[in-house]
Amino acid sequence: MTKAPWQATVLTLYPHMFPGPLGQAVTGRALEANAWALQAVNIRDYAFDKHGSVDDTPYGGGAGMVMRADVVGASVEDALIQATPRQPRCVYLSPKGKPFTTALAKELASHEDGLVLLCGRFEGIDQRVLDHHNMEEISIGDYVISGGELAAMVVLDACLRYRPHVLGSAASLEEESFNHNLLEYPQYTRPVEWAGKKVPDVLQSGDHKKIDMWRHQQAEQTTQARRPDLWTAYCNEKGLEK
Ligand code: SAH
After folding, report:
1. pTM summary value
2. Which of 30, 40, 145, 198 is close enough to 18 for a disulfide, judged by CB 3.0 to 4.6 Å?
């Protein structure tokens, strides 16, 4: 029997949004090849009144609607039962969550039991569901988007790059931005001259030692100029003077 693929279960009011972009290119090919599996579950299927209500007005008043604890809770419960004996990490996509980073993507990707990703809509989800299931809250950045679906896709895409059989070459991860806290060096391809600009000579020299050195310098310069936060982390890791 072949091993069950790494599984993502997405709880959403918009299951038809999936796989969406994840069904294309590298992640799409890996999905077809069974390198990972995706299940998009409609939270509305767990509504129990005749109108299929999933949201209600907030206690204490205020604008907007909140997703009901009983309905969302039942969808999480069922996802966990379906996953048994696997124990997926339970993530709620939320602007209040911890910032999503490369380190977190690697960590989630290495959890062989996969992920349950809960997508909010409206003003969000009744706090009791998050507390009851001890959900990990993850934010994709300091802005608010209208629903958790795009955030779940961002998290999944970034995780999948660290799963086996998704990227063609693992080497492409090694040099990518954020690896070791450095942004990537600039890239060039043909034509050798375009709009009066030439590809830097060193890249055409064939001297791989020199090329590596040049790229490393470029990565350091870009990181220092654009991302002082990453630069500090890089220097600390390397024990370098800032
Ligand atoms: N009232 C909430 C925002 C709700 S936005 C607040 O002020 O915190 C609706 C849903 O979109 C959220 O439940 C969440 O699932 C998703 N969402 C919005 N911004 C997000 C972000 N930066 N990261 C991850 N998910 C986000």
Report:
1. 0.96
2. 40
